[in-house]
Amino acid sequence: MDTYFASPKRTSEEKLFAEIDFVSKNPVISGLLHSISGLLAILDENRQIVALNDSFLQMLGIDDPAKTLGLRPGEALHCIHAYDKPAGCGTTKFCSTCGAAIAIVSSLGQDKPVERMCALSANKDGKVKDTALLVRSQPIKINKKRFLLLFIQDITKQQQRAALERTFFHDINNMLSVLVGASELIVENDPSKLAKTVHQASLRLLKEVAIQRYLSQSESCNYQPMWHDFTTEQILEELRSFFASHPVAYKKNIDFSKDYPVVSIRTDISLLLRVLCNMITNALEATAENGVVKIWIGHEADVLSFYVWNSQEIPQEITYRIFQLNFSTKGQAGRGIGTYSMKLLGEKILGGQVSFTTSGEKGTVFRFSTPCRNS
């Protein structure tokens, strides 16, 4: 058997040189090779490289493109299985499950673009290195000649991060389940105030981890809220307790209004506190030392509104993107989730409304409104 998967046929040396010359002189191909910032290789119908861009050469660690011309992708990328069969890349028993080989063969057969993820094990300087690549194969016809545009993106870090996140959430949930179960037993045997506090804290932590998982995987993860009745007094007490010794409140004043409506809302308390704490944290971060942040509650008809005020105005250009994911004025990696999560949790799950007003004269007020009922 000459192949386990793709055709073993290779382009003759004479024809290959002609293809390379044709591609090198074609303005369309030349424009693509110079304009695409990612990895791009041009393949002929026998899956052999006839051109590639500088980014691809840098990734391969070579200066002379002639060293790769005529090779197939797996051979150029030093795949450890590329030469398991005499016909090379695409023909070994491993190739039928290779994302790159599948994308290339499928796009040739169907004459349409195909994208797959490729788990590449490459031999680099005598060491095997595993890399995750996103490979897109796009057929193109030029003067009745068919070639493949092979776009490659290194997604190794994204894949590693996703795997670490899945492992973390799996393991931390297992540990927290043990903690919650143990705290329940402690409360049953000794229903002291301390035991109940530990039990409530473990439940809250379990919910916080579930919320964080939802935020990190919001497109594919469904969060199931736990609805219970809470009074405005209980909610304010939770906020006072949270910020009593919080570092962001150091040398700053939080003014909780004593005049608030006595009503109840049916909510997921973990989500509500996440929204309100983000509002207060943002206000404290914008407040100078010895400054004040004001918090009050309003009640109109069947709507309860939580307000957080600070004296600073938000610049107009920032207001347009205040709730956008990954946008932050802090300039640090991992920022830009706080205000986004207010909208996501407060509106999508809790069914409320998050808004703000800002001006130089009146400062900035964030508001979260949610349906309520009289206590």
UniProtKB/TrEMBL annotation:
<dbReference type="Pfam" id="PF02518">
    <property type="entry name" value="HATPase_c"/>
</dbReference>
<feature type="domain" description="Histidine kinase">
    <location>
        <begin position="167"/>
        <end position="374"/>
    </location>
</feature>
<dbReference type="GO" id="GO:0004673">
    <property type="term" value="F:protein histidine kinase activity"/>
</dbReference>
<dbReference type="GO" id="GO:0000156">
    <property type="term" value="F:phosphorelay response regulator activity"/>
</dbReference>
<dbReference type="InterPro" id="IPR050351">
    <property type="entry name" value="BphY/WalK/GraS-like"/>
</dbReference>
<keyword id="KW-0808">Transferase</keyword>
<dbReference type="InterPro" id="IPR000014">
    <property type="entry name" value="PAS"/>
</dbReference>
<dbReference type="Pfam" id="PF13188">
    <property type="entry name" value="PAS_8"/>
</dbReference>
<keyword id="KW-0418">Kinase</keyword>
<dbReference type="GO" id="GO:0007234">
    <property type="term" value="P:osmosensory signaling via phosphorelay pathway"/>
</dbReference>
<protein>
    <recommendedName>
        <fullName>histidine kinase</fullName>
        <ecNumber>2.7.13.3</ecNumber>
    </recommendedName>
</protein>
<dbReference type="InterPro" id="IPR005467">
    <property type="entry name" value="His_kinase_dom"/>
</dbReference>
<dbReference type="InterPro" id="IPR036890">
    <property type="entry name" value="HATPase_C_sf"/>
</dbReference>
<dbReference type="GO" id="GO:0030295">
    <property type="term" value="F:protein kinase activator activity"/>
</dbReference>
<dbReference type="InterPro" id="IPR003594">
    <property type="entry name" value="HATPase_dom"/>
</dbReference>
